Amino acid sequence: QVQLVESGGGLVQSGGSLRLSCAASGRTFSSNVMGWFRQGPGKEREFVAAITWNGGSIYYADSVKGRFTISRDNAKNTVYLQMNGLKPEDTAVYYCAADADRYHSSTISRLRTTYEYWGQGTQVTVSS
After folding, report:
1. Shortest CA distance to 22 belongs to which of 105, 128, 115, 85?
2. Which listed site, 28, 52, 70, 111, has its alpha carbon 20 to 30 Å from 76?
3. How far apart are CA 94 and CA 124, in angstroms?
């Protein structure tokens, strides 16, 4: 059974930092684009960041550019999201996702429908 399991969420004050992790099991995603999305209260799920299989291309949403950093460790089948300078508007459930059907792709999609596997999400709450 393929699983993506996020961890690292929590409550942090404005300006603080958190590091999210997403560990995959059941298959390897070392050849696939991995992404992070988030869904705030009363909002649609939105793209945050994604990284190609070898880290050669990385894409961020404008709202997090310069504050968040996505990375991956293919040996551990894990992707990370380092979040610095957190703001109350970053409060959301953060989801990890895998673009499982495309291999060694150099392009990144921001569309939710592109990603076939999703984690259960981890809550990030930023207090003002």
Report:
1. 115
2. 111
3. 7
Contact status, residue 68 vs residue 58, Cβ threshold 8 Å: no
**Buried-exposed string 36-75: b where 16+ CB fall within 10 A, e elsewhere:** bbbeeeeeebebbbbbbbeeeeebbbeebeeebbbebebe
Query: How many CB atoms neighbour CB 15 within 10 A?
Result: 11
- C-alpha 39/C-alpha 52 separation (Å) is 22
Q: Compute CA 127 distance to the chain's CA centroid, rounded to the nearest angstrom.
A: 21
Nearby residues of 43 by Cβ (< 8 Å), 6 or more positions away = 92
